[in-house]
Each structure stands twice: as C-alpha cells, then as structure tokens.
Amino acid sequence: MLPGAAAEADGAVRRLLRAGAVARYKVMKNWGVIGGVAAALAAGMYVLWGPITERKRRRKGLVPGLLNLGNTCFMNSLLQGLSSCPSFIKWLEEFTAQYKTDQQQPTEHRHLSLTLLHLLRALSCQEATEDDVLDASCLLEVLRMYRWQISSFEEQDAHELFHVLTSSLEDERDRQPRVTHLFDVHLLEPEITQKQISCRTRGSLPPVSNHWKSQHPFHGRLTSNMVCKHCEHQSPVRYDTFDSLSLSIPAAVWGRPMTLDHCLHHFISSESVKDVVCDNCTKIQAEGILNGQSIENQRTTFVKQLKLGKLPQCLCIHLQRLSWSNQGTPLKRHEHVQFNEFLIMDIYKYHIPVHKSSQNELNQKNSEETTPGTKEGITVKPSDAEPPSGTKPLFMNGACSSSFLMSSGTFPLAAFPECSSPVYLYRLMAVVVHHGDMHSGHFVTYRRSPPSPKNPVSVSSQWLWISDDTVRKASLQEVLSSSAYLLFYERVHSRVQHQSLELRAEE
Q: Distance between CA 264 and CA 66 in Å, rounded?
C-alpha cells in the first residue's frame, strides 16, 4: 500500500472512533430523561388499568392460585376444594366470632379456625387481595402448634390432611367429652320435629350444650345394625361419627361401568357375623324348659349392616385407590368411577324402625309404601331395595343421560319421577384428582368458580382447573370425566326444608 493511502485510512478510523464516543456520550446524557418517561408511562398504565395480573384474573373470573412450597400440592388442592364449600366457610365465620372479643394479641397465629378462614375467604374471592398467588405456609405453622409436624418437602396425602384439619378443629372447640347428649335427638335424626319427641319425665327437657351445636358441617353419624337371622331380633343400634365416607372400589365387572352407586352399595352391603350370642334366642329356649335347669347361651348368625344415621351438610367422599399386589407391594387403582353433578342419598339413610305391633297395621293399611332399603322393619341388602328386573331406573348416582350431564346448575327433577322429591340431595362443589402412582404424583383440583358478588347465594356453573398456582377454566364434562380421589358435595335444601331450618334457628 502507498504511504499516502495508509495515512488516509488511519485518519478515517480515528474520525469513526471519535464519532462513536460522541454518540455514546449523548445517549448517556439523555438516559435519565428516557428512564423518567418510561416510569411515567408505567405509572399511568397502573392508574388507568391497575395491575395486569389482577385485571386478567378478574376478567376471566378465576381465583388465586397457591404457591408450591416444595411438595405441598396435597395442601393446595385440599384448600381449593374446601374454599368451594360455602357452608364450611359460614361455619368458620360463626365459630370464630368468639375470638373477636380477645384483642390482646393477633389470633390468626394461635387458632386454626382463623387461619383457615382467612385462606378460604381469599381463595373464594371474599377478601380483597392484590396477589394472584397466595402463600399457605401459615397453615403449616399453626398446625405445628397443634403438634402436627407436616413437612413441606415430603409428599403427603390430601385425605389425611383433611382429617388432620377436622380433628384439629374439634380439638379447638370446648374440651368436653364427645358423647352424644341424652336428649339431643336432633343430632341423630335432624328431621324430627319437637312435636314428635316424647319424654316420660315431667317438666321441660334440659337445654342442650352449645358445644354440640358447633359441629362442623362435615360431621355425620353412621349406624351399625345387627339382626339375628334365627329370631329376627334386632340389637340396639350403634352410632359412630365420621368426617368423610371412605369408599372402597369393588371389583369391576367386564362391560359394566363402575359408578359411585356401586361404591356406596358396597359400603352399606350387609355381612354375616357367625357365632354371636343372641339373648333373645337364649330367652326363648329357656322359656321352653319346664324344670328350670340352666341352658347355654344360644349362638346364632347375625346380619350386620351400616347405614347413614345423620347425613352432614357438606359431604366428603374418599375413593380408596390403594390396593396390594400378591407380593405385598402397594398399587394404585386407576379405573374411572362415574359420578354426577347431583347425588341422591335417600336410599342410604337409616330410618328408625317401627314397632312390630304398629307395623302390622301399617302393612295392612298401605302395603305398597315401604321405606327404601328396609323390608318389614328389618334392614336388607341394597340389592333387595332396587326396582324389579323388568324395570330400569331412570336415575342412578354416577349413571344417567348425557343431556343431564350437560345441564347447567339446576336439577331437572321433573325428568326423574321416582326422585321427584328427594330429601337428601347434594350438589357437586369440588373434585380432587391424583395423578401418578403410589410413590409419587401430583394433586389437582376441579372446583366451582365463586358466585357473583351481586348474588352471593347463587351457585356458579363455571368450573375451574387448578394446579398449585396455575388456574384455568374447565367444562363440566371434563370434571365428570376425571378420576376422582376426593369428592366434595353440599346439600341442597328445598323451600320447605329452608323454612323448617329457619323456624328451628328462631326457636
């Protein structure tokens, strides 16, 4: 290259570098102005439209999600399911009213009911929150105060946590013995009116403690009925409490879909108990002996059957998906159990049997009117209470027409004549599903969207799918097609039942 050309090229490079430096200086000088303009634009957008995440959630009608603290999907799914039960939230509000008088220290960190109420109200959009994702670590902290050590980094079971919450809420109540009050007939048979209650004592009945009126809405009672096969003598009915119905899934029949009714029938199906001493048979045998010699106790076979003595306002159904292989290893059952948006429980309800003397008159007067699930005052198998083989039932819990599955929030009772006036009718509120096997997996929840603030008593027909902090809309068909692990139902009262409940509350 010639010397003159090299000098000219070198000068051009120096001029280019000086121009870049000047441009960089001008940009740095105006950087503060540019940043101020951007901040002003962002502030204006916030004032006009609010936070983008909050605007998005309100526009789509979604609910806040929950932060996964490690392996806390079991807790998040359960909280979303409980927040869809208005009766449970209302009970928590009434139960925690006693703490409003104590203002010495923050009660949220001392009582499970207050912590749970705060979370459920936020998840049901009853409390204003600017966060799309909530942190439920406060629930684990308060459970540690109740001596429950639940790690957020270990996989747990949502059904076990449900029992932890209900038992802890019972412990939070007044520390009284959990024995049914002698005169608390409403606890066993809530449909009995005061006029139907008779007592041989003089004067009024003693008042029932408020402790028994503060039972949470998941509280129910099972009845255990024992009948002698030989003399048909019925032993005294035994009552046991339950917070959820844990149903085993019976063996599948090829070509026959598994329904929730099959699981419920299997739960209350009668079983024979052999070699049981029958006092009535022994008494009859003794009366036949004239010389008065002693006889041995007569042992016979009894028929034992479970029934639902008191159905709760909120019904939690747990489908047992744990099974064991021949080698003793745990396995998960993945088959689909069909369930409906509405559930009729009348056939599973225990009814107080009528005395034999008055029952014979009733049978002669109106023999065709029999209580479902009973025959001549004796509890029988569910199969005996089903309609004859020639007739096909129009409605079953878990099997019905597709048009009914796609119906919106109302129950078309006119379409089912035999179920035109069910007393124990329940509406599906949430479904908890477990994906995976027995060793690892993930819990998700289908739940109803909260009702509109303009009509808080209404029930939304919009369903949501929630996986921790992810929330999206779902259809009813998607919900009913899921492999349910926990089902949350809430009882639907008719107008007559609403009026009786209001009168009872006034009394």
A: 33
